[in-house]
Design brief:
Strand content: 15-25%
Structural class: alpha/beta
Radius of gyration: 17 Å
Number of helices: 7
């Protein structure tokens, strides 16, 4: 068994991403959750990532320890592969100026751990779900909150 340090926005993210990682790797993990402040965005990741890495390094564990940073793509004008959103013009002027979250977090990881991933003291990755995947996650984890009762559909 390994340890997975998750820096995420809520418990649903922890459940979803830890299970995805277990499915992909075929390994089980004990999850250590660290929370991003609600609506903290990328600036919250900038503050918390170095602290998370420091905490992991202080455990002195060297094997089977990983971290995952999960933050939503909320109102970011760029989607994966740097394609611009179809609804770009609907975003506020402030949101239109936002940079690519994935690139920014990867830069922060490189600045914190080094540019060569092979030399990192702990391995980690980033998950930035696009809106459709996030919707699936919410429906899977909290269907009672996001799905109307069937009787509402037939009124």
């Amino acid at each position: 068994m390994g340890y997975l340090y998750l820096l995420s926005e809520d418990d649903s993210d922890d459940i979803f991403f830890s299970r995805c990682l277990a499915k992909i790797t075929g390994k089980s993990y004990e999850v250590v959750s660290r929370r991003l402040r609600k609506r903290g965005g990328i600036s919250e990741v900038r503050k918390k990532l170095p602290l998370l890495i420091k905490q992991i390094q202080q455990t002195r564990l060297t094997e089977n320890i990983f971290f995952l940073i999960a933050i939503d793509n909320d109102r970011s004008p760029l989607h994966p592969e740097h394609r611009r959103r179809d609804d770009f013009s609907r975003l506020t002027k402030q949101d239109q100026k936002k940079s690519c979250r994935l690139c920014e977090i990867e830069r922060l990881m490189a600045n914190t751990l080094g540019f060569d991933r092979n030399t990192w003291s702990v391995q980690g990755t980033v998950a930035i779900p696009v809106e459709m995947i996030e919707s699936w996650q919410l429906l899977i984890c909290e269907p009672q909150k996001y799905i109307e009762p069937i009787w509402c559909l037939y009124r």
